[in-house]
Amino acid sequence: MADHLNLLTDVEGVAVGHSTDLALGSGVTAIIFDEPAVASCTVLGGAPGGRDTALLDPAMTVGVVDGLVLSGGSAFGLDAAGGVQAGLREIGRGLKVGNALVPIVPQAILFDLINGGNKDWGLHSPYRDLGYAAFKAAGKGPFALGSVGAGTGATTATVKGGLGSASATSSKGYKIAAIVAVNALGSATIGNGPHFWAAPFEESGEFGGLGMPETIDSRLRLKGTNITATTIGAIVTDARLTKAEAHRLSISAHDGFARALLPTHLPLDGDTVFAASTGRHARDDMPGFMELCHLAAIVMARAIARGVFEAAALPVEGAQPAWRDRFAGPPGIRPH
């Protein structure tokens, strides 16, 4: 694996896999840990959808997870975790309860049911199979961004949404990274122009290097007032955390939503962030943990902008244009 990919897989012991169905206009992203990871989550949107999120409360008994799932499909998409569970059980992973193995795979879903894709799937939704395919595709190293996996059918108020990721290293050497499917009711871009709200945190031109515009248009922009949306993601570190600390890290990552999307956490968003620790590096100092909370917000903001920057319009009539469709940008700007 490369030393720095600017992806979630920069954190050792983490694999990512996508399954993408462009005709369906949806997909699934699986995050698989080599070993069970301490995890928690925070839900701040008003219209969330999730599976096994309650067990991630710090007061609940189960302390670790085998994987996490991000999916399109709204409530139908919750079948995807079953597919990932099947894959994990197949390789002998899971919480041992007597003679049974129960893989712990919390999930969050986003609403992409009216994006123009063919949702006439018959009696059973395809998401369990998509979840299994995402598990089988999971690997270390590079993975695709944009209109793939859980970001396949994502949209925003102004341009096509997508799947993004970014990473950083703390001053103490801890790795921290974000992955996110951007399907916001609001916008990741400023006004009607190409600039991103997350521009102050951009590194190495990862989403175009355009900086901030001369004036800021902060007027409300929504993709609708009677539909649900949702941005869902995860923040992962190799620093050892308790479950309560992982919960606090997930709250800090939501600050990245507020820095990259305007508005966010609305009544019809289901904004959810998981946080997980692989525990590869010991940590017991408060200053080091506070720096991780700081970085969680920044890498999440960068990941959101990258997801939108890398997205491509769905191949369906009337599909929402992507950032690249609307803003060619200066010569040399290309998706990374």
UniProtKB/TrEMBL annotation:
It comes from Rhizobium lusitanum. The lineage of its organism: Bacteria, Pseudomonadati, Pseudomonadota, Alphaproteobacteria, Hyphomicrobiales. One of its GO terms (molecular function) is aminopeptidase activity. This is Peptidase T4. Belongs to the peptidase S58 family. It holds the Pfam family Peptidase_S58. Coiled coil: none annotated.
